[in-house]
Amino acid sequence: MTDIAINRRRFLQVASAVAAVSSALSAVPSVAGILTADNKMNALEQQVFQKMLDISLPTKGSSLVDPASLPVIPTIEQALLAGMAPHIRQGLRGGIVYFNDGPKAQYGKTFVQLSDAKAAEFVDAWTRSEAVPHRALAVGLKKLTVLAYWAIPNTWAPLGYDGPVTEKMGVKSLGNTPEPRD
Questions:
Q1: First to last CA, the chain
Q2: Which pTM value belongs to this model?
């Protein structure tokens, strides 16, 4: 199915990391870190996220802000990927390569080479897959992409959202409260 030599155990680790990261990021409003050479996106990762952006946020004909006019890919890189631990980032990198090669068996092309319609079909198929790693990668990459779009304040106006109510009301942040121990 893929040209990449990846064993089952490593694949499950990668898929689990993607699922864990995407779950954690949805609960954290800002996870910005320091962007280093190790967590910077390579060209393939940028292409995969761009294709995912194209198929996940079709805004044409709606009041939503066109993702092409926003820095969504840099937001993914700077606000989401930069804060990842090196081993999780490396796992995600491997997962993105595996995901990109996923359609070769059925379509004879990589994910980034597919038309938008076929790419959406592929993502939907992996999202519904009984294989947990396929679901984790498809949902995780889509979630990272969509989170980055909605993290940009310019996207809020068409929804009638004008920012966090705590900022408007002047509520002081008390930081992160630890979980109860009992």
A1: 48
A2: 0.75
